[in-house]
Amino acid sequence: MNEAKARKVVKARSEGRCEICHIAPATDMHHRRNRSQGGKWTPENLMHLCHMHHMHITVNPRTAREQGWSVPSYLDPASTPVWVTQREFVFLTTDGNYQNKDGEIE
């Protein structure tokens, strides 16, 4: 998937709200696995965040990893759960959905 398509899918998934707080408008695309570590422009690797939460991830790397907001290079973002407001821990799917631990699309 190219960058433009991935951005479009993630913006639709977030409905324009930060995926962490779901209060503030989302302004930043965040790579869960950094691009410098092989992170790709895919919906399962991207989160749509407000600037404040994007900075929170940068300043708090331990919390970011615990919550799945950051993924180390040796893990696959598609199989690493992430904490998202109003859904708790879910998996982000290639088609831009949230999938719970039971495999149900939310």
Describe the protein in words.
The strands form two sheets. Strands 3-4-5 form a three-stranded antiparallel sheet, with no helix packed on it. The two termini are 22 Å apart. The longest helix has 12 residues, at 3-14. It is 25% helix and 17% strand. Strand 4 (88-92) and strand 5 form a beta hairpin. It has one domain. By secondary structure, it is α+β, with helices and mostly antiparallel strands.
Quick structural gist:
The chain has 106 residues and is α+β, with helices and mostly antiparallel strands. It has three helices and five strands, in the order H-E-E-H-H-E-E-E. It has a three-stranded antiparallel β-sheet with strand order 3-4-5, with no helix packed on it. Strands 1-2 form a two-stranded antiparallel sheet.
List the helices and strands and how they pair.
Blueprint lengths: L2 H12 L13 E4 L14 E4 L1 H9 L1 H6 L15 E3 L3 E5 L5 E2 L7
Antiparallel strand pairs: 1-2, 3-4, 4-5
Q: Total number of helical segments? A: 3
Walk across the major sheet and give the strand order: 3-4-5
Distance between the termini: 22 Å
Largest sheet: 3 strands, antiparallel
Number of domains: 1
Unreliable residue runs: none
Helix content: 25-40%
| Rg | 12 Å
The SS-based structural class is alpha+beta
- Beta fraction of the residues? 15-25%
- Report the average pLDDT across residues: 95
**How are helices and strands ordered from N to C?**
HEEHHEEE
Q: Report the strand count.
A: 5
The coarse overall form would be globular
